[in-house]
Write a structure and sequence with these properties.
two-stranded antiparallel sheet, 4 helices
Length: 148
Amino acid sequence: DPVIVVIFTCNHCPYAQAYEDRIVALANKFDQEGAQFVLINSNDAKEYPEDSFDRMKERHGEKQFPFPYCFDESQEVAKSYGALCTPHCFVFDPPRTLKYKGRIDDNWKDPSAVTEHNLHDAIAAILRGEEPPAHEVNAIGCSIKWKN
């Protein structure tokens, strides 16, 4: 696909849970337009068993994710991206240049109160061949649970 959307997330974080349905809706909306979503969980599953690969497979099935949900067991992928929290979004254009990094929107608690659709607007702009309205917006969420 021309546009790749990588989202670092996990099972246990309340921010990540609150955004799951919105992520699925965005993936479904932009699927035919050429945006591929990939979710990555980089948390320490030993300390956070809810984020284990087996639990991820369960979550993938329960939520019927229309995209891959990958386990970054070594945490090297998250480190290479500079991912800080869950969820943390990275959007790449066709030449695979990072065009957007940050949050999904401005209200994790209440989808009906969202006024800034940052991830949506970035994807839509890139698909039109334009620059996103913002290239970086601070992501909010639970910190990635790094191994000791």
